[in-house]
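Lecture 7, part B: from sequences to assemblies.

Below are the input chains for today's worked example.
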Amino acid sequence: MKLIKKHFLLYLFILPTLIFLFIFHYLPIYESKLAFQKYRIIGPNEWVGFRYFNILFNNSAFYNVLWNTVIISTMKIAFTFPIPIILALTLNEVRKLSHRRFFQSILYIPHFLSWVIISGIFISMLSINNGAVNNIIQLMGNEPINFLTNANYVRWILVISEIWRSAGWDSVLYIAAIYSINQELYDSAKIDGASRWQQVIFITLPMIVPMMITVFILNLGFFLSAGFDQVFNLMNAATLSRIDIIDTYVYRVGLLQGNFSLSIAGGLFKGFFGFILILSTHFLAKKYTGRGLW
Amino acid sequence: MNIKTLIKLFVFIYILLFSSITFSKEVVVRIVSKDLSADNELHQQYMSIGVEALKKQGIDIKLEVVELTGGQSYKEKLPLAIMGGDQFDIIYDQYGYDKVMADQGLLLDLTPYIEKSEYFANAMYGLNKERIKNYPYLLRAHPPRVRIATVRADYLEKAGMGEPQNLDDYYKMLKAFSESDFDGNGANDTFGLTMTGDTSRCDWIFDPAFGITTTWNKNAGSYSHKFVSSGMKDKLEFYNKLYSEGILDPEYITDKWDTMEDKYYSGKAGMICGNVGITMNIYQGKMNNVQGSDTPIISLKPPADAFGAIDASKEPRGYMISALSEVQDEAFAFLEYWVTPEGNITEKLGLEGMHYNMKDGAYVLTDLHPTFESRFFYPKLEDPVKVLVLAAAQSLDYADKMVTFDNMFAYPEELQPQADNANNTYQEYSYKFITGEMPLSDFDKYVELWLNNGGQAITDYANSILK
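Predicted structure of the full complex, as structure tokens:
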């Protein structure tokens, strides 16, 4: 109480945000009980226990979808996690400020495009009839490849398009972390004869490790999300079994059929799994690196 | 009591009296539809025609077009609004949410209203009447929503062919399109046929040619699904032949409907399967726009003189009235207006001054008419003036004579994931067979997989409810 009184104005500043968070992020959690009820438009909902979870789990397609989600998320984290870091480190080495700002802006732009546009771009580029990529392949004397219907390539298309869209924007956090590093450390290193590369390895990287751990843990919380908008726009009948994820499955089987309870059951499963992942990663990170989310 | 208080009291009583008189005459009818917006002046103008007409009959309504919020599309917005407790009197649905409402007794049974109506009997097509008998909640007076082959008339002429009469003729026509340079761009880059996403558009005309008549077929005393029938294998073989000979566009599976149409208008595809009826007017309009001149398109008779079976169990889309509505009579009267001879004029011609003009007592369509679409129904009443292009009139004629009814049914909640899984298995493997990635000799392996992926469950259910 003393603390609140002492910093009353500061608490007042964050109060609207806390209220917003409570109303729009915490209160709605209560309605997740719909996953255990048969929804009725008028009148009380009927309690059905784990019925909708049984409907989900008793269908073999759900496990295929779950496996797809795990694979795609793992691929995305493995490839999209380090790239913004590399980008931030590279941008930091650009000496001229105007050049750095120019490249930063170019890298941010894809983030503002919706997946409808990005999928249109990739579909066009990868088109088997006159797509840019297949034109190059044909120039090299090979047969064109229908990338978007090929089971071996489609997951990589998701990863590459995700990198193209988000790498620039995700590097913002790391750039900010790099800018906060004390310049004296670099000066001391220079005096000691450290090369530019050594400064990156021994100063820059270690100093942004806390940020990396935080971002990694937070990303893991969304591990089972895998990107609904992206997958929805890029999927087709030929590749559905390879890239159908929990979100698209629940959307098709639950939401489109007006079966909200089934949709919420799927969402709850995802949320619960993400919660366990965040907690376990936080404690592991705390144990082995001394740093976690809190 | 002083004079000021008396005046205030008098004004208060006057307002109360005036309000009660106003409220006692006018009823509010709340309507929500995918194709109506409260902010669109043209829509408001359109609605006011119906409201004014009802007023002349002594039915004074205030029509409130509700703008839904929340969600990305009407498909999401409607259930969210209803779940949130919003009440509507007239509701349009095409996404199956009507079933959820009907199951909970929230939709009005329209049978007594239709029986009493002097207009709906003439306005509804045979399919509409069959559907309303089975499912009296969704109201629709519209031609069967089947798809029909459409080609450019000049392409047929250049190929030296008449309209195809059977499957063999279709094959020869499509082959001629793909082997020639009818669009005159100096490149042999035209496909005979293109589709969008899957083969369902052209299955409407090709299914009957391979003996695929209904979704469930009785063989040796039990029902089996068309997805695993011998007819389906033959049809996939036909598509495979088109694909391997370069007649079928290899990008059909990734193309959206607008890309498919774009290929048709620009001459990159000789044939597409489009919606019957007034939609052909739109195709014709766009074709003329792209080609820069009058480039007639025509609709072709299905090769087996029948369309693929259409679901007659219920309308997939239409208008419904809430069972909780307090203005059910007024709501129905508003819907009924659009199938009267007067309402038919607006539904077919559009807004006077914009889509048509009156000249010496005759209707004259403007250049904007091709962009017009009816808001409620497309009644089976005579058009006030010729509004349909050749392809549209042809398609309606074929649809009316050649539509067949299906025996499909809605799956219960617990079988929906199984049905979805079975459907996805069919979509994936049909593509593999068509492209040759999997040989048709492996069709039995696909059947086994389909049965394991939910097919057996839905087949067992079908055998329990179909007689």
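Note for the exam: Chain B is about 45% helix and 10% strand. Keep this in mind when comparing with the next example.
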